[in-house]
Amino acid sequence: MTTARAGIVAVAGEALVDIVPAPVDGYHELVPGGSPANTAVGLARLGVPVRMLARLADDPLGRRLRAHLARNGVDLSHVVAAAEPSSMALVEVDEQGVASYDFRVAGTADWQWTAAELAGALDGPVVAVHTGSLATTTPPGAAVLRDLVRRAAARATVSYDPNCRPLLMGDREDVLAGVHELVGLVDVVKVSSEDLEWLLPGMSPADVLDDWVARGAALVAVTLGADGVLAATAGGLRTRLPGRPVHVVDTVGAGDTFSAALLAGLHDAGLLGVDARPALRAIGPDVLHEVLDGAVRAAAITCSRRGADPPTAAELAAAH
């Protein structure tokens, strides 16, 4: 762990348990997961002060999630003690290490947000809020988190990762309308090419970049798996960075790690916070390259390890 830097990033969304293949054939193991929770852990390991906004069950899985987040230095003072059970995701990994997910989420803790539970979510020196994934599409709590984004946009940088899960998100056109609504409210968007193949079939990543920046985002990054990342800014920059060669064990948590490292890089550059919004929109090419390169390196490290295991700042520096 590195020395924490000033300014809190609040991460809102699901913290669930992944059921993943174990090293011994025919066995599985339970590991902490959930896209927002993975991003929170990634930020904490990179030395960024991070507050988790989650609903954690008081069951064996929920206690395991709480211990994992606390052990990694994530602030749990705004976590809700939920009466509902924990969510689970059954993970399959193909021969190329690419993960797919089958969820057990009916009536579970992550989706039951009330406005009162998030009333103090932005208290203190919060410079950024990150959210996305199932928590922004699963009722009834999705509407509450979307309202949090609207409130946060007036006082902090807002980051968003659609992290699409077609099996659970419902009608594609409805999801796309919701994604476009959030893109128009937030500052930073990370989206994968896989997400875009479902959300906007037939539309190139480059065209999506142009469209989403035009909708209001300051920075949009499209991750391309092994092929790296495409990015665009409100200031007119367009850039592409290649991927880092790595032996892929699995891709679990790679996109979440990218989001964490992207935000950590912007944090280091002093580009988070409402007062920094003009500077973020005008980010220069050298700073953008450095931030994106760190995110690509971090994601590659996660791909080289089993499960959602993002790097520490020391590990990221060593992989420069």
TrEMBL record:
A GO molecular-function annotation: fructokinase activity
Source superkingdom: Bacteria
One GO BP annotation of this record: fructose metabolic process
Pfam family, one: PfkB
InterPro entries registered for this protein in UniProt: Carboh/pur_kinase_PfkB_CS, PfkB_Carbo_kinase, PfkB_dom, Ribo/fructo_kinase, Ribokinase-like
Zinc found in the keyword field: no
Alphabetical keyword list: ATP-binding, Kinase, Nucleotide-binding, Transferase
Residue span(s) of domain Carbohydrate kinase PfkB: 27-311
TM helices/strands, residue ranges: none
EC number: 2.7.1.4
Similarity comment text for this entry: Belongs to the carbohydrate kinase PfkB family.
Name of protein: Fructokinase
